[in-house]
Amino acid sequence: MSGGLFTIRFTFLRSGCRGKSSPRAAKMQLKGRVTVYSITGCPHCKAAKTKLDELNLSYTEVNLDENPEYRLKVIELTGRRTVPQIFFNGRYVGGNDDFQALGKNELEDLISDVRENAIPETAPPVPEKYPGRITLYSISGCPHCRVVKNKFEDLNLPFTEVNMDDNPHFRKPVMKLTGKRTLPQIFFNSIHVGGIEEFRSLSKEDLLKLIDEIKTRPVPKNAPPVPAPVDAASTEAQIPEENDDDASLIHLFKRSGVVKDHRNLLVVHKSCFMGCELVSWIQQHQGCGQEQAAEFAGGLFQSRFLSAVHGDDTFKNDKTLYRLLEDEPSKSLNAQVVVDIKPMPASALAVQLRKHILKLYGQFLSPDGKYVDYKGMKDSELFRDYVQSTGQLQRLNVEDMTREEKLAFFINIYNALVIHANVMLGIPTTTWQRYKFFNSASYRIGGHDYSLQDIENGVLRSNRKGVGMLTRPFSKSDPRMRAALEKPEPLIHFALVCGAKSCPPIKTYSANGIMEQLRCAAEAFLEGEDGCGVDADKKLVKLSKIMDWYKCDFGADNAQVVQWVYDCLPANCNKKCHLSSLMQDRNYKVTFMQYDWGTNSKPQSKQ
Question: Counting beta carbons within 10 angstroms of the beta carbon of residue 538, is it exposed (0 to 12), middle (13 to 18) or buried (19 or more)?
């Protein structure tokens, strides 16, 4: 959540598993259990619960908003992706319509089952309650966090998840508590286990001791902090959508017959119109004078509803050819999305898109964190909503942003675009496919197309050549140069790439404090063995291949790159001490690790 609200997923949460009681009559005594899987604010869930109350049946409600890890289990059990889903002991009833349609005899048989029979082993799972607490600090879309959560589910262990994207103010306290800059971080009461590697390496005996800790001891005062629970009625603060009257006017103009092909000798310009034609149409439609109509048309041009075919920067009331934004020839993934609302502020939109795509990513991430079901993602309603939201990028003004705003905006958009492109274009597996992918996967932003290559090397690296590029991304006359940073920022490489064994505690970046966020991501990456390795005995420094590919961003030679890494490592890092000794001797070798291009796409079954 944003807007100052805390988000905390109390997985197997005490309040997420509620025994309901009716104020009108005592509930029927049951040996078994009625289970209702629901979500907050669902009218169908409410209807099912109302009927259960009328029948004086107590029930256990598992809210999937508060217990998101139960979603996949429910889908596996029922074969459905809707709520509510209702069980009487181990007998599956279905959704609200199925429940309401039950005949008298069928209903009496189900009630008799839960009244007379104990809960069977085949009953669906519900959260348990323990006096202690497992605390899991996580980040959206993190496969390593998913693995840990899946392990807790397998062990039927309740845990409190604190998502750092939703609670960024927890980053510093958690770093101070753990001395780590990566996620996940796991606590059993006040006992710090560590990250995924430490959790995996626990012996059976040690794990049983930790489980006994939370089963027998209440949460101590020195347990790690968690946000206060949010009222279920609270919702995420959203910037309200506002209809755009100018967009409606453009739709009318498109249907007016003025937009058509124009021929200039042997060249045909598709779907165009002259500036004077637009002004004349506005005069007739709005009933205003030519001067006022021309000023209005200029405003539409500045708002990027239209662009000049030959690249003019200003609107002219003459025979200059223009084209509506939606008619511009483009293969960008959001080019054909028609948006009738006013775009929200650029920074807010980028954050919303990034969080939206991370939610999708997490929803279709396999329990073991190894694969993403991109096909399932593409077919989902949530993905269609995401694609529609990307349409707002088309008319943003990114040229007047500050350096900090550009950094946060383009990093968030780049990372979201990678996932969007994986869904629509497929994951590249060869060198040639990767080259095409990074040069073709693009969004239209502010009236111009920006590929992944353009964003990374053109904007964030201040128009420097990228890997395998013969020329700079932007020419001197390219209007996108106005969006490029004046100086390259080397820290962006650790925000755009995350292939490590644990994730940095930041997935979504904000302009406020962006440099601190980037340094945190860099420290987390370099602390890992796939970012930087130091072998003091062999006098060897191993660095990520990223620092070889983009060496000019970090230094003129290997010695300067190593110095940059040393300066970036946190003061309390053992690796920094070993590196310092090697640098003083000036007798060490630098090698660059092989880059892992392994994909995380879900393997397709053979037909």
Answer: exposed
Average pLDDT, the chain: 87
Helix axes 275-286, 290-302, angle to 10 degrees: 120
Helix (H) or strand (E) holding 445: strand 442-445
Of the candidates 180, 188, 182, the one whose C-alpha atom is nearest the C-alpha of residue 157 is: 188
- State in words which class domain 245-327 has: mainly alpha
Instruction: Please answer whether residues 421 and 441 qualify as being in contact, where contact means their C-beta atoms are separated by less than 8 angstroms.
Output: yes
Residue 273 has pLDDT above 50, yes or no: yes
Residue 400: count other Cβ atoms within 10 Å of its Cβ: 10
| Whole-angstrom distance, CA of residue 475 vs CA of residue 484 | 12
For 29, 62, 446, 564, 587, the CA distances from 581, given in Å and listed in that order, are 72, 56, 50, 15, 10
Fold equal for 17-116 and 134-216: yes
134-138/159-163 β-pairing = parallel
How many Å apart are CA 52 and CA 34, to the nearest integer?
A: 9
Q: Which of 310, 347, 307 is nearest to 327 (CA)?
A: 307
DSSP 524: H
Domain boundaries, the chain: 17-116, 134-216, 245-327, 346-485, 489-607
pLDDT higher than threshold 70 for residue 19: no
CA-based nearest residue to 39, from 101, 83, 72: 83
For residue 356, which of 327, 332, 330, 385 has the smallest C-alpha distance?
385
Query: What does the angle CA 496 – CA 497 – CA 501 come to, to the nearest 5 degrees?
Result: 145
Distances (CA, A) of 185 to 84, 369, 533: 33, 16, 22
Q: Can you tell me the distance from the alpha carbon of 185 to that of 207, in angstroms, rounded to the nearest whole number?
A: 16
Mean pLDDT computed over 328-349: 89
- SS3 state of residue 307: strand
What's residue 599's pLDDT?
58
Please state, in angstroms and as integers, the Cα–Cα distance from residue 13 to each residue in 70, 85, 154, 229, 583, following that order: 11, 19, 16, 10, 51
Could you please state the CATH topology (level 3) that the domain comprising 134-216 is classified under: Glutaredoxin (3.40.30)
Beta-strand pair 60-63/17-19? antiparallel
d(CA 253, CA 278): 8
Give the CATH number of domain 17-116.
Answer: 3.40.30.10
Cα distance between the two ends of the chain? 42
Q: Cα-flanking dihedrals φ and ψ of residue 11, to 5°? A: -65, 135
3-state SS, residue 425 = helix
Task: Tell whether pTM > 0.90.
Answer: no
Summarised one tens digit per residue, pLDDT across range 414-455 is 999 999 999 999 988 888 998 999 999 999 999 999 999 999
DSSP 372: B
| Residues with Cβ within 8 Å of residue 375, at least 6 apart in sequence | 602, 604
Q: Angle at CA 77, nearest 5°, toward 71 and 78?
A: 90
What type of residue is 457?
N
What average pLDDT does this structure show over 41-61?
90
Phi-psi map region of 267: left, alpha, beta (phi>0 left; psi -120 to 50 alpha): beta
Secondary structure (DSSP) of 142-207: -HHHHHHHHHHHHTT--EEEEETTT-GGGHHHHHHHHS--SB-EEEETTEEEESHHHHHT--HHHH
